[in-house]
Amino acid sequence: MTQPTDIRRVPALLAGGMSEHMRAALNLAADGLPVLPLRRGKLPFGNCPSCVRNACGGRPNMKAAGACECPSPCHAWAAATTDPAVIASPAWASAWRQAAAVAYHPGGAGLTVVDLDDATAIEWARATLPATRTVPTTRGEHWIYRGTMPSANAVRPGVDIKSLAAYARWLGDGRGATASLPDAVRALAVKEPAAPRRAPQSLTGPRRGRGGACPHRTPTYLDRGVAMAVQRITEARSAVHATVYRTFLAVLSTHGQCGCLTDAHVGRLFTAAQAKGESARHCTDAWTNAVTTLGL
User: Fold this and answer.
1) Which is it for strands 179-180 and 141-146: parallel, antiparallel or unpaired?
2) Rg of the chain, C-alpha, whole Å
3) Is the overall model pTM greater than 0.85, yes or no?
4) Which end of the chain has fewer CB atoms at under 10 Å, N or C?
5) Is the pLDDT reported for residue 54 higher than 70?
């Protein structure tokens, strides 16, 4: 980074030192990137006691700088901050010591990250999108553009967009010059108008498709398929949003045409997804998008 952190603004650091992740976070914050700690699995830390089980209603009071007013780094992207006094506060210092990675809020820094999850997605981006700053990830690349837009998951196979109301892991400065956000990226998040579809807002009654005779000889076939889908979600190590959507799509493509897929099955899928950090809203959106894609 170009600017060292002025630790004179953070008295707590002078007494107890700082972890590697806190030092990195302070340097990123000095460069204008709102940061937050991630635990294992690339997930934010849990809500602070004041907001446990969403007691705050999921709408934290926000300071002008964008930092959550809660004492702990809860609320994920909404807690991201550039304030060194917050980053080095006792509650945050404890989180940094346990953290597995540093994340940042791209939208808060005026950026958009196109998260390419595999080689196929990278090949598509190189053929479709203008060159920009790229950062290698575990299996793919982050393409970073200057400008903001609504975040969106699974805009195409292996591609997520992280900008406003989202967070991305910090994986280094990368290479190349940061280009302006192109219309080709903005267009990825624009969905064509579709007729309203029933989504599992409340899990009551069977999830019926177009009707017709059930092709499954025994309920065991369906139960085995749902169990495999739950396992696929549970074992996801990256691209959880995309994995959940693709799994929902696979289940619906096999079992969505008849009336044997019940709310109990859907509930198992939603429970597995939420255990990986997905919100109920994200689960509903992924399910609705899968239903729409298949024309059910």
Assistant:
1) parallel
2) 21
3) no
4) N
5) no
